[in-house]
Amino acid sequence: MRVLKDIEELKDLRASSVSIGNFDGLHLGHQAIIKKLTSLSPNLVVTFDPHPREILSHQNNVRQTFKFACRLTTVEEKLALFEELNVDNLFILKFDQKLARMPASQFVHWLLVDHIKPEEVVIGYNHRFGKSAQGDFELLVHMGANFGFRVTRVPPVFLEQTCPDTPVQTQNVSGEQNGSRNPKLSGIEGFPVSSSWIRTTLTEGNVELASRLLGRPYSISSYVIPGKKRGRALSYPTANLKLPSDKLIPKNGVYAVWITLPNPATRSYPSASISINNRQKLNSTGRKPVSDDNHHKKLKGMMCIGEKPTFKEGFGIEVHILDFKENLLNQQLKIEFVKYLRPNRAFKNPQALKTQLKIDESTTRKT
User: Fold this and answer.
1) Cα-flanking dihedrals φ and ψ of residue 130, to 5°?
2) Buried b / exposed e across 257-284, counting CB within 10 Å, b at 16+?
């Protein structure tokens, strides 16, 4: 996949089909759009950085709630996901105040007519763009007729009710174009998959539903930082994680998770300027370094998000990896959320906490 960041690069790019959107989360609805897009080749996805909400909230002087101000996917995660979905070309368009104020018709002329010149534009059922979100499907169709491109609108994706023990299936259902419930489907299955719905489920701790909507487990990646070693004293050593600044963190509580360790050949550290000698020193702590056998394996673990009321300590994120005692300091871990286990609470003493951790461990092993 070719990644472009300069608008002038688009003039030399041949793309038969293009899709434009933020694609935060790249959930099942987005995947349906990309599937249609990649049926035509060569293809191009145009996405934005930073998230438009970050600019629009400042523009409108609106203080947004935490759950809607944070991303479901970082730029790096989007790159990997688009590549997995067989996108040929990706253009990351800087979203700024100038772009936010650009009228919809001017945006189409500037991006599609002057630079990309596509044969087909593929959009989602509720796609809007331009100043005050004035641009829509009808405007694109009108301009496409004048400038020689077709427009395909992909209908919303709804979850289809399945047995909980079987893989989740999806079906495209032509419902009302404003994204309201589809009366042909019952319960939550009648609502279209959306990034907003996923953000809400995560802030409620419902990571299982979020995974269904995404088509994969929700995940965060972060570096291991020094901690106070309280878990070690309880026989449950934890890796304390640096709080990601640009990712939505699920509701406070304890979760069953999967942990993936970094590739030893491309091991990541907080600063790219760390020399090879210093990297070796980081692992020279007297504890066994991570063995190559464990890299890229998914290991079960328990993650705690939030304050530590038993020890009267503030907010933090830490994870205990089952059956694992190697050193992870300064390494980057990928955490996939599997199940919400329980809320945080204060225990009368550390021994009572250890008893609860044993219960959490048993539940996690069965998850």
Assistant:
1) 85, 175
2) bbbbbbeeeeeeeeeeeeeeeeeeeebe
For residues 237 and 229, is the Cβ–Cβ distance under 8 A?
Answer: yes
The 10s digit of each residue's pLDDT in 146-178 is 999 999 999 999 986 333 343 333 344 333 334
Helix (H, G, I), strand (E, B) or coil at 351: helix
C-alpha distance across the termini of the chain, in Å: 36
The sheet with strand 43-49 has its strands ordered as: 2-4, 89-94, 43-49, 17-20, 120-124, 150-154
The residue type found at 11 is K
Sign of the dihedral defined by the CA atoms of residues 321, 325, 330, 332, in that order:
negative
DSSP 135: B
What is the greatest pairwise CA distance in the chain?
Answer: 73
Tally of residues, the chain = 367
Enumerate domains of the chain plus CATH numbers. 2-157 (3.40.50.620), 219-366 (2.40.30.30)
Show the beta-strand stretches assigned E in the chain: 2-4, 17-20, 43-49, 89-94, 120-124, 150-154, 157-159, 170-172, 219-225, 239-241, 253-260, 298-308, 313-321, 332-342
- For tokens 């000698």, the residue is 277
Residues 51 and 24: their CA atoms lie apart, in Å, by: 8
Could you tell me how many helices (H) and strands (E) the chain has, helices first?
Answer: 12, 14
Q: Which residue has the tokens 């509720």?
A: 126
Tokens encoding 66: 């935490």
pLDDT in tens, 126-140: 999 998 889 999 999
